[in-house]
Amino acid sequence: MLGRIGDRSLKTMVAFGARLRHIGIKRLLAPAVALAICILLLFALQEMSQSINYHSVSRQLFSIAPHKWAVALAATALSFVALVARDEIGLRHVQAKVPRALLWIGATAASALGNIAGFGALTGGAVRCRVYGAAGVTPAQVGRLTVFTSVSLVMALLAIGALGALWDTNLLATMTHLSPGPLRLGSALVLVALAAAVACCGARTKRIETPWRAIAIDIPARADLAAQIIFGIVDVVGAGAALWAFLPSTHADFISFLAVYSVSLLLGILGHTPGGVGIFESVMVFALRGDVTPPALVAALLAYRAVYFGLPLVLSAGVLAGYEGRALRARLPLRRVARIGRLAPLFLCLITFVTGSMLIMSSATPALAHRLAVLRQLVPLWALESSQLVSGVLGVLLLFVARGLLRRLDAAWWVAVALTAASLVLSVIKGLAFVEAGILATLLVLLVSTRRNFNRRTALFSEPFTGGWLISVAIVLMCALWVMFFAYRNVPYRNDLWWQFAFDERASRSLRAMLASGLVATAFSLWQLLRPAAGRFVCPSSQDLTDAVQIIRAQERSDAGLAMMGDKSFLFSDSRQAFLMYAKHGRTWAALHDPVGPRCEWEQLIRKFVMLAHQHGGRAAFYQVRADSLPLYLDSGLTLMKLGEEARLALDGFDLNGPKRAALRYSLRRAERDGCTIEVIDAAAVPAHLDILRGISDSWLKSRSAREKSFSVAAFSKAYLAAQSVMLVRQNGEPVAFTTFMTTDLNVEATVGVMRHVADASPYVMDYLFVQLALFLKSGGYRSLSLGVAPFSGVQPMPLSSPLHRLATMVWRFGGRFYNFQGLRAFKGKFQPRWEPRYLAVSGWASALVTLVDLSILAGGRRS
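^ that's the sequence the OP posted. Answer follows.
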């Protein structure tokens, strides 16, 4: 018995270790650093909060006068107006223009997201790419704008800090432990350096190229840089005034306070925590501890966070939700403005995560005594006890559901709505928490108004959570646990505290709520980590093959016939009206071509396949996809690389007349002079000719010392050839060459499949074969014939090419010794086809090289 238990434990440990390996040490490094910083900050707060009482902080927070909230709101509005002006100057700097409404949306939404999510320059830049991109602003321009505004903001902070130090050195000297003399000298040098930096700029923006082609330095125009610094100062002054409004009277004046505020803000930016949380508060408490009582300062910081960080995030989400209405769409008649609406799930994800954190914190803290006295008359004890415990658990679930909202999942939306509605009711029952109820009601309204954005019908937890997400949940629980011990610092902790049930036993309720929340989060995280980490290639069943053939026959893309080779797995849509064919090697899950079936099913299938690959710790790749479907892959977060061009022959205009077809007429006559004739073999008659066809195929493989390929290359197999027609060439009565061609029941297009010929056949036999095939299909009413893809064809070097594009260019130019890329294109070019680009869509550009290697292995017939 013990042996079986030990074996089971060992298997569990092995599975856990395998899952950790698939998560990846590198991917866990950044979240682990954030966790370490959080622990250090909690220790620091523990030391600094010895003289702070939770109830005094609560009283200070609720006693803030209404006019102070109004002043803080006005200061916040001033700060965001200056922020919009900074973005407008930045757009002028990069020589771009956007409509006024788009400018306000992009600037405010980018700032709101950057303040909450951390790494403000990167997250804000991503939002600007979406919003300003609708007006034609390129990602490169957004990157230059982000660098310009970020550097100018740092310069503005330095200027405010230096001016404040020159105005009054006492506060900064106490904070930095520097004597006033060196502090004044350093501040003066900073101001001189900033003035010199502005003076050195010219009248116009200059772009300086560096030895590294991908890096260039912009020297802004003097007027632009000066205006950026001025509006940056206004931005910081407005933000600082929002905090100053909540502070009680102090010995320090506003200018000295701004100096401390700017230094705290700068340290918070350097810490890259969301909004500088923790770092900013620690510095402010340390600097103002002598002028402001700790409870009043903590209350002011909490109110400041709510006004300056929380409110803009909610308003930005509301604006993006309002985009779904006709009024805002009418004001922004842009071709790509739909990209703006897709930001709503990102903001809803953040708000949901913050709301879940709020519910956990609320369950960990005591309800107000006078509200409990009212509840004693309205609800039974069991309702009060269970509501606080369940509210904390629902908060944990919201933390996990938020990721589904980010993925725009339909199930995540329904679960989020249900959890939010239930939490809204519980917030009243557990302590008449009307502010909390208002926040939950706002989230519910935002979810309802953005319903159309969550339309991906995929299992909510089909994709494993990243290590970063799980560590973020752990950080929330750690902070909530600290807040609980802070709130009940004077409560003696005994074992019987767990079993005390009464209206005034608030510590017991919080303990039980935190225990339940921690157990649910731990159980869910362990379940995620112990899920199967790898999938294996499975040959399709006979029923899957039958269903796939029916779908192939009912649509027009003939290259889908490669599914009949039986060497690829199938992933069907929920309705089984469409499918993807794919194979796997290593960590690469490679789908061949676009989905097959109705186009309305493609987005769901692509998302489902990406999640399937990521669920097993792999990378998703879509091989040889067409240009008209690229937005679907971009929206799924994939990176694109051009693979080459497909030669498509328009049969409507194909004939042998004119000087351009002289070479083909010559090849046709020479082949006929050599005794070549054609014979078309219908699919029903192919089995009777298999021995003849196999003889030609074996001779062709032997002459090239090759073996059968698979995956994206048509291979000789009995089942595959029996599903299509064959054109056979006889020379003087002897079979010497053949090609199969795939078609569908719609008779729109055909694709060349297996092509083989014997070594001693006429040198013009393949030209003859393709000419005759084209003429035969034209007479049958077909509109186009695909001659296959010329790898890396049409990939031209460009100054701003990505590393992948440059690699493809080098392969095209210098890879001839390994594969005749240019010769293949030249052969197909004789038929004067229309060249259509084909792409590789893959999860991450850095893994594209490995993906190409795995694709070549798959083509060689190997699976894993």
